[in-house]
UniProtKB/TrEMBL annotation:
SUPFAM superfamilies: P-loop containing nucleoside triphosphate hydrolases (SSF52540), post-AAA+ oligomerization domain-like (SSF48019)
Protein name (record): Recombinase RarA
Positions of region (Disordered): 459-505
Domain AAA+ ATPase, first and last residues per copy: 70-206
InterPro entries: AAA+_ATPase, AAA_assoc_2, AAA_ATPase_RarA/MGS1/WRNIP1, ATPase_AAA_core, DNA_pol3_clamp-load_cplx_C, MgsA_C, P-loop_NTPase
Source species of the chain: Micromonospora craterilacus
UniProt family annotation: Belongs to the AAA ATPase family. RarA/MGS1/WRNIP1 subfamily.
Keyword line: ATP-binding, Nucleotide-binding
Keyword Acetylation: no
C-alpha cells in the first residue's frame, strides 16, 4: 500500500467488493477520525468544491465527469492543493462505476495492464465501467503511458489522471489527444480564507472548539500561496499548539510558531521553472531590480542550480546589456566563476550583485540584432568568396594564387585604419551593427560612422555650409557620453591620425 499523505491507494486490480470489507470507498481508504484535517475537510459533493468556478458551469466536462453522464477521459492539471485528488474522490463516490486508484510513484506497466484486463472482462460480461485514477501521471515513463493508449481509445477504461506538471511537456501526445485537459487554478485568497473558516466550524474539522484571530488567519492565507492543503495543514498545526497551551484562541504568535515558512512552488523540470526564469530575465531587461531580486530569491530558495542562474546572467550580459555597458559581461562571468569557486550559500551574494548590476545597467540589444542579421544573411546564401587580399598567404604557393595581394596592414597607418574591402562583394555597404545611444555605446555610435567612412573609402561630408541668412553655419556638433553637445571632429582626428596619413587612398 502506498500513501500520498492524503489518502491511501488501494491495490491496482482490487475490485469494489474486496475494498468494501476494509471500509474503503471506491478505491480510497475511508476517512478515519484522526485523519489529517485536509482529508477530513474534503468536499462531499461538487457544491462544496471551491475555487474552480470555470469548470463548474452546467454541462461542463468536470460536472459530466463526476456525474458519470459522459465516459470521457480527463487529465487534471493544476498546482498542489488545487483540488485534483478531491475531484478523484468525488468521481469515486459514484456508485455505478468501478473505481481503481493507483500512483505513478509505485505502479508499473504490469499494474496498469492488470487493471485494463479486469476492466475488459467486466465490460464483456456486462459489468460496470471502470474509472482508472492515476496520480502523478507525469512520473510515468513513455512506455508506461503507451500501455494506456488502446484502453483509453476504445474506452475499456475511463482515465482520470492528475499532474502538477505541464502535460504538454510531461504527457505523450497520443495520450493527451485522447483526453480532455482540465486546468485547475490556484485558489485565491478569498477561497482559502473561506475554507479556513469552514474548517474552524465544521464538524469534520475543529467543530468550533477554537477561534482564529484575524491576523493569524491572514498569516495562514499568506503562507498558503493558493494551496488549500497547506493552509489546512498549517491550521491544524496551529490548533494543536493552541490546545497544548490551554488557550481557546489561535493568535498570530501561535500561528507563526506552528508554521513559519511559505512553500515555494517551483519545479526545476517543469513549466514553473521556465515561467520563473522568464520573469527573471524580463525583470532585468525591464530594469526592475527589485523584481529581478525577487525572482532570483525564488529560484535560490527552491533549490535551482546556481550554475544555471549564472549561465543566464552571462547570456543576458551580452544579449540585453551589450555595448551599453561592456563591463557587464565581466561582472556576469565573475559571478559564474564564483559559483564554482565559492558555492552556495555564500555565492548568492555574488549572484545578487551581478543581478543588481545587470538590472540597473543601460540596455542595448545591438549585439543580438547584429549577429542575428549576419546569420540570417549567411543562411540566405549571401556572401561570396573571401576577398583575395584577405586570404591566407602563409603557406607555400599561396602568393602564386594571389592570396594576400593588395592587403594593407592597418598598423602601418598612423590612424590604425585604412581603406580596404573586408566583406564579400555582395555585402559591400551592409551595416549589421547599429549602436544605440545608451550608456557607453553612445560614444561608439559617434565613432562608428567615421570608421565606416574611412574603411569604405567614402568622402567626408562638408564641414560647413551656408546658413539660411546667407552667413556661415556653425560646425556640426555631436552628443558626448554625458549628453553634452560637443564640436564634431573629422574622421582622421577621431581615429588617431590625419586625413592624408600613410596609405590613405
Amino acid at each position: 500500500m502506498e500513501s500520498d499523505a492524503l489518502f491511501t491507494l488501494g491495490e491496482p486490480a482490487a475490485a469494489p467488493s474486496a475494498l468494501a470489507g476494509s471500509g474503503a470507498v471506491g478505491g480510497f481508504t475511508a476517512v478515519a477520525p484522526d485523519a489529517p484535517l485536509p482529508v477530513r475537510m474534503r468536499p462531499a459533493d461538487l457544491d462544496e468544491l471551491v475555487g474552480q468556478e470555470h469548470l463548474l458551469t452546467p454541462g461542463a466536462p468536470l460536472r459530466q465527469l463526476v456525474a458519470g453522464s459522459a465516459p470521457m477521459s480527463v487529465i487534471l492539471w493544476g498546482p498542489p492543493g488545487s483540488g485534483k485528488t478531491t475531484i478523484a474522490h468525488l468521481v469515486a463516490g459514484a456508485t455505478d462505476r468501478r473505481f481503481v486508484a493507483m500512483s505513478a510513484l509505485s505502479a508499473g506497466v504490469k499494474d496498469v495492464r492488470a487493471v485494463i484486463d479486469t476492466a475488459r472482462r467486466q465490460r464483456r460480461s456486462g459489468g460496470p465501467p471502470t474509472v482508472l485514477f492515476i496520480d502523478e501521471v507525469h512520473r510515468f515513463s513513455k512506455t508506461q503511458q503507451d500501455s494506456l493508449l488502446a484502453a483509453v481509445e476504445d474506452r475499456t477504461v475511463t482515465l482520470l489522471a492528475a499532474t502538477t506538471e505541464n502535460p504538454y511537456f510531461s504527457v505523450i501526445s497520443p495520450l493527451l489527444s485522447r483526453c480532455v485537459l482540465l486546468t485547475l487554478h490556484p485558489l485565491d485568497d478569498a477561497a482559502v480564507r473561506g475554507l479556513l473558516r469552514r474548517a474552524m466550524t465544521d464538524e469534520r474539522g475543529l467543530a468550533g472548539a477554537l477561534t482564529l484571530a484575524p491576523e493569524a488567519e491572514d498569516h495562514l492565507v499568506r503562507l498558503a500561496g493558493g494551496d488549500v492543503r497547506k493552509a489546512l495543514t498549517a491550521l491544524e498545526a496551529a490548533a494543536g499548539s493552541a490546545t497544548a497551551l490551554g488557550t481557546g484562541r489561535i493568535d498570530l504568535a501561535t500561528a507563526e510558531r506552528a508554521v513559519d515558512t511559505a512553500a515555494v512552488r517551483y519545479d526545476r523540470a517543469g513549466d514553473a521553472h521556465y515561467d520563473v526564469t522568464s520573469a527573471f530575465i524580463k525583470s532585468m531587461r525591464g530594469s526592475d531590480v527589485d523584481a529581478a531580486l525577487h525572482w532570483l530569491a525564488r529560484m535560490l530558495v527552491a533549490g535551482e542550480d546556481a550554475r544555471f542562474i549564472a549561465r543566464r546572467l552571462v547570456i543576458f550580459a551580452s544579449e540585453d546589456v551589450g555595448m551599453a555597458d561592456p563591463a557587464a559581461l565581466g561582472v556576469a562571468t565573475a559571478a559564474a566563476h564564483a559559483v564554482e569557486y565559492v558555492g552556495l550559500p555564500e555565492v548568492q551574494l555574488n549572484l545578487a550583485q551581478a543581478v543588481i548590476h545587470l538590472a540597473t545597467a543601460p540596455k542595448s540589444n545591438s549585439a543580438t540584432t547584429a549577429i542575428g542579421a549576419a546569420i540570417a544573411d549567411v543562411r540566405a546564401g549571401r556572401g561570396g568568396p573571401v576577398p583575395r587580399g584577405l586570404r591566407d598567404a602563409h603557406y607555400a604557393g599561396a602568393r602564386g594564387l594571389g592570396h594576400g595581394t593588395g592587403y594593407r596592414y592597418p598598423h602601418d597607418d598612423q590612424r590604425g585604419v585604412v581603406v580596404q574591402q573586408y566583406v564579400p562583394d555582395d555585402l559591400i555597404g551592409t551595416d549589421y551593427y547599429r549602436p544605440s545611444q545608451h550608456g557607453a555605446e553612445r560614444s561608439v555610435a559617434t565613432r562608428l560612422p567615421l570608421l565606416r567612412r574611412i574603411v569604405r573609402g567614402l568622402p567626408a561630408p562638408a564641414r560647413t555650409e551656408a546658413s539660411p541668412a546667407g552667413g556661415q553655419a556653425e560646425a556640426p556638433t555631436s552628443s558626448g557620453v554625458d549628453g553634452s553637445r560637443q564640436p564634431a571632429t573629422d574622421a582622421a582626428d577621431e581615429v588617431g591620425g590625419s586625413a592624408d596619413g600613410k596609405g590613405q587612398q
